Amino acid sequence: MTALETSVDARICPTIIDATAQVVVGQRPAIRQALTCILAGGHLLIEDLPGLGKTTLAHTLATVLGLSFKRLQFTADMLPADVVGSSVFMPGQPGGESGFRFMPGPVFTQMLLADEINRAPPKVQSALLEAMEERQVTVDGKRYPLPNVFFVIATQNPLEQAGTYPLPESQLDRFAMVIRLGYPDAETERQMLRSGGGRAHLDQVTPVIDAAGLQQLREQAANIHVAARLIDYVQSLLAVSREAPEFRVGLSPRAGLMLLNLARARALIEQRDHVLPDDIQAVLPELTNHRVGLIDYDGRDAASLLLERVPAP
Prior knowledge:
about 15% strand, about 325 residues, Rossmann fold
């Protein structure tokens, strides 16, 4: 494997993973997936039962990456203005002018944790659509840009739990990856029980990088080389997903672009200057399974069906 010319910067990725793993114990694969998603410029959805560390993972990553962080708890009585902000009438001081002033909502941050996003009704969930796609919000006909480094990490509980709403397909497609944490193994859980859990040590975490450094890593990832035959491979995966009778819908062009971005980000973490078929195959499940929806299910996921039907180059 060829080392990157900027390998000094790329070598910080294991340090980021190690620092996060000090708090989020026993979840290195999930941490790696989350970092891959962030370096690709995508948004992340973590779906799992309550109490498994979803919020802790998001908060720890924000701290390690040196990003401004806001947490927004989604509830059934929320309004879109609770997410993006609203115009508030401000009375003028003596001799001054009164008028409406925009008060930014929690979305104006570098990393937004949308906690239990599927407990809010669809009109609130849709308030994030413009922010996630265009990095801006529009209120009263005026556009307000979001920070250059902006990510949404959302958590959701399984839909069979009471008080949840399914996310619309348009929003699911804006999440680059959906991951699950799962229960810890016995040794990890014993370590957590002894130490009081990872959140007890969150105050001890210090930033490994800042927003400017993270932006540099994203730019390096965007410049990772993808061979023409791998472009053909991705295009074949997209085409087969649209023809497969087991899928409700096929993968969108947005999904294809993000698949390449995720593969580039994984190559960067591996300190390579080019993408391999393994990179595409490794990120495909977390990109695909929440997008297509299986009609016929025989124990396999959508990504495994695609990989069986499209030979690797």
